[in-house]
Structures are given as structure tokens and as C-alpha cells.
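Trying the structure run again after the queue cleared.
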Amino acid sequence: MSDPSEDSAPAGLTHFDAEGRAVMVDVSGKPETARLAIARGRVVMAPATLETIRAGGIGKGDVLGVARIAGIMAAKRTAELIPLCHPLALSSVKLDLTPAGPDTVEIEARVKTTGPTGVEMEALTAVSVAALTVYDMCKAIDRGMRIEAIRLARKEGGKSGVWEAS
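Done. C-alpha cells:
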């Protein structure tokens, strides 16, 4: 067994050490910068399901409120869910769930930190868990709901600067 104090990682940022084993990337040499990630997704459902959500008629409670809290909690625990993801001290997580049209809930997560690595995974996790929570709370009346288009919409900070989806 190798000595854990030895740095056997190849040069550069990689998830593999010199022997090809999976490791968490060493970001200790990277400067701390302000980071922002915005992720988006949606849940598409029967129009009657969205109307029931709007009317507060789901027996499990306030669907959008519970999904918002679930997404925020998930963002904070991303490192426990995604292998090799860095645990980060998040400075802000904002999650919006907005009914759109007759059959869709749009979800947007904005996650911020100041650190050596970005928060894209935290924003994507927040949207994913919020969408799954909407599904879970409404599946008794609409098993045909679809979770769609979860993606990174924007990131800011770090060496690569600003990136925005087209």
C-alpha cells in the first residue's frame, strides 16, 4: 500500500494518480476566486397536475416549497452524492421553481462560493433533486411526468472565466 502522504498524481488536474487509480483532484494550488453556477431544468406534466399544484391540492403539501428546500439541501450535500466531488462551503444557493405554460415547472438554481473550484455540480444537483421532489410529490396523480433538459446554463469564475450555454 502506498504512503498517503506521497503525491503520486501526474502533473495537471486529473482524477487519476500515476498508477491510474481514481483520486480527488488536488486543487490546493489553485487561487480562490468568486464562483457562480446557474443550472436549469424542467418537469413537464399533465395540465391538470400543474393546476392541482397551483391550487395547493397535492395531499403531501406545498410541492414547490418542499422542492425548493430539497434542492437547496442537495446542493449543500453534493460531495456526499457525487464521487470525487470536492466538499465546498457554499455562500449562497437560490432555487426558483416557476410554473410555465399549462404543463411545465421551470427550475433554476444559482449557486455561489469563493474557492479554488467551481459549483457547477452543486447547481446541477440542486435542479435534479428539486425536479425529483416534484415528481415524488405528484406521482400519485401523474406517473407520466417527465424531467427534462437539466443543464448548466452559466458559470463564472476561475481560470476559464465566464461560460454561457448557447
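The chain has a mean pLDDT of 89. Worth checking whether this holds up in the mutant runs.
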